[in-house]
Structures are given as C-alpha cells and as structure tokens.
Model the fold of this input.
Amino acid sequence: MPWAIRMRRFLRQPADADARDDRHNFAAFLSDMFSYFSASALLSPVTILPLFALKLTDSKLIIALIPTLFSFGMVLPQALGARLVHGLTRYRPFVIKFVIVERVAVVLAAVSFVVFAQSPKWLLLSMPLLFLSIWYFTMGINGPAYSAMLTNAVAPQRRGRLHGIGAAVGAALGLASTAWALHMLKTMRFPYGFAALTFLGAVILIIGVIPLGFVREKPHVPVEEHPTERGDGIFAIWKRDRQYRLYLVFQIVFALTGAQTAIWTGYAVSSLRAGDADVVRLQMIITLAGGISYLASGWLADHLGNRIVILTSIILTAVAALWAGLAPTLHWYMLSFIPSAMAVSAYGLASFNILMEMAPPGKVPAYTAAGALISGPWRVMSPMLGGFIALRVGYGAVFFTVVTAALMAACLFFFVREPRRRIGVERVHASPAHE
Done:
C-alpha cells in the first residue's frame, strides 16, 4: 500500500548520527504520546469524570469544576515550570522527575476510589479529583520543559506527523480501552468500575513513558540575542513580538469556546436522558474522531503550516456547537461530537506546534509561560462560565456563546501570519541536532 511504503521510507535507518538520534527521539516521544492519548480516553475530564460526579451530585457548577481543574492544572503552572527550567542546558532530567510524580498521582487516584468507596459522597468525590488535579498540575509545570526537550530532539518538519501518528494510534488503543471501560461500568459496582478504569490508565501511562527516559538530548546552546530580543519577561515578550501578541488575543477569545466542555455530559444526561453506556459511547466518538483529526492535522501542519489547521478547527468548533444546540435527539447530539472532537484535536496539535515556531531559539519555555499567564486564565474560567450560564439561562445559551466566540476568534486569527513564512523554518529551531 502507498501509505505503508511512505511510512517505511520515513522510518528508514538514516546514515548520519544526528539523523539516527532524530529517529530514536521520534520513536521515544511517539511511545509517550501513544500512552497519553489512549489513557486520556479513560480519564477524560469532559465525559468519564463528569459521569462519575453525576453519580454523586447534580450540581452544574460542580460538574463544570472538573474541566476547570484540568484547564487550571495544565495551563497556569506553566509559568512556574518556565522559571524552574530557566538556564538549564538539558531538560530531560527535569521532565522525568515530574513524569514520575504524574504517574504516582494517577495510581493514588485509582486507589482512592476503593479506599473511600464507603465514605460520604463529598469525600468520595473530592479525593480522586484531588489526586487527578495533582496529575494535571504536574503536567502543567512540566509543559515548558517537555516542549523545549521536544524542540531540541525532533526536527520541526516532523512534529506534525509525530503528534498525528501518536494521537491516531493512541486513539485506536483508546477505543479498545473505552470498550473495556463500558464493560467494567456495566459489570462492576460503583465506584469500583471507575477505579478499574483509572488503574488501567495509570498502567498505560507508566509503560508508555519509559522510552522518554532514553531521549538523546544534546545540551542547549545559548543563542546570541539581538538587543531588541532580550528579556524573557511576560511584558517584554508581549511588547516585542506583535504576531505573538495577536495570537494571544485570539487565544483569549477562542478560549471562551471551552464553555461547552462544562455541559457536554450534563446536557446529555439531564436533557437527553443519556445513560452510562451512552456517555462511554460519546467518549468513543471523541476518541475515534479525534484520532482521525490528529492524523490529518499532522500531515496538513507539516505540509501547509499550523495556521490552516487552526482555521479549520475554528470552523469545526462553530459547526459543532450549532449542531449540538439544534440536535433534536440524543443520537443527533452524539453525532455533533464528531466535528467537535476533530476541532479540539486539530487545535491542540496546531496550537502546541505553532508556539514553538513563533518562539526564537532557546525561548520556548518563556513563550510557553507567557502564553499560559496571558491566555491561560480565560481557558481556566471558560468551563465555569459555561456552568454558570447553563445554571442561570440554560444550555442553549452556552451553545450560542460558543458559536459567537468561534466567529469572533476567526476574525482575529485572520491577522495572524504563518510563522514559517514570517521567520523561516531555519529559525524553527536551529538546535545542534538539526543544523
């Protein structure tokens, strides 16, 4: 088959040492992404975990708190992470230390389902979420170092394929695991089915991350800066880089589309009478559509740039929200998750990669932190905003808010240029392994 031939050529053993290291690192990061995306299907903060919470409470705000915790942990601690890795020449030791903490937190979350099974509802609800919040928080701290290590280890023209292949294979594994999750939730008493799902997620995460410890990372070599490019502070970056400033303004507006994550499961259960099996099927749709989208988006980003991928995700977000708001039945609502999941995956891949292409060499952690602190609070607040709107006005108003925010974001993103055309691929990034 043509795709198989291309894949063999892509993975063919290179001749020079730097190219061999690049291939080795590609495989190591690929293993980590396999595990992360497959485990994420079992620990989803927009389907599986809200389903668990709905067994214990019917509060819309508490349900909205779950994706809010995820956003808070993944975004805001990045500023702290950037400060901790500032001045490092190697990022791998830092990444591995926090990866260990992440995996331990997920294991403790699985154990807490069992330990607190007979405890008061508030305690059973809070303890697993506490340990999962630690997982999110440590991932957030680790984000700048992980991005910097990836920047130094994998060539820019392969990063799209790395995320695409990793997410697509992870989605296939995630489909298998969610099918097993459906069986567990049907056959095991509450909350032991959720304990089994979380434990399986922990095992997948532990196994998949092992190759990351063997990444062949070369020391970071500081680049002589132009006087106008000095300063890693948030306001220095904001003032200096107009394109990045425009991109962050776009991110602030587009973050409001995250309001829908607070109501995905709640709306399906309360308004459309979805059961446990239906919610797991929603996650299977998200996993499958997201995996396909990651694969297509990775190819598109490598060949045409990340800008076109983000534009596509904006359009899909508006279409999905409009579809969900007008869906007359549960089945039509479930189908709206196809464009929605494709949008989330495409945006996640492209927004991660475009930041590394906007940042000058050696500035990836600083740019990551600046983006987290400027646009991060809006991403954190958007699920709570969705829960508040649903509580005060209704679910329809949330979908309307998402459509409006997506259209406004599209207008803003029109002024953001493709970084590869702006600064050239050679700046993105001329690390020693890729010069």
About this structure: Residues 16-216+231-425 form a domain with the Growth Hormone; Chain: A; fold (CATH 1.20.1250.20).
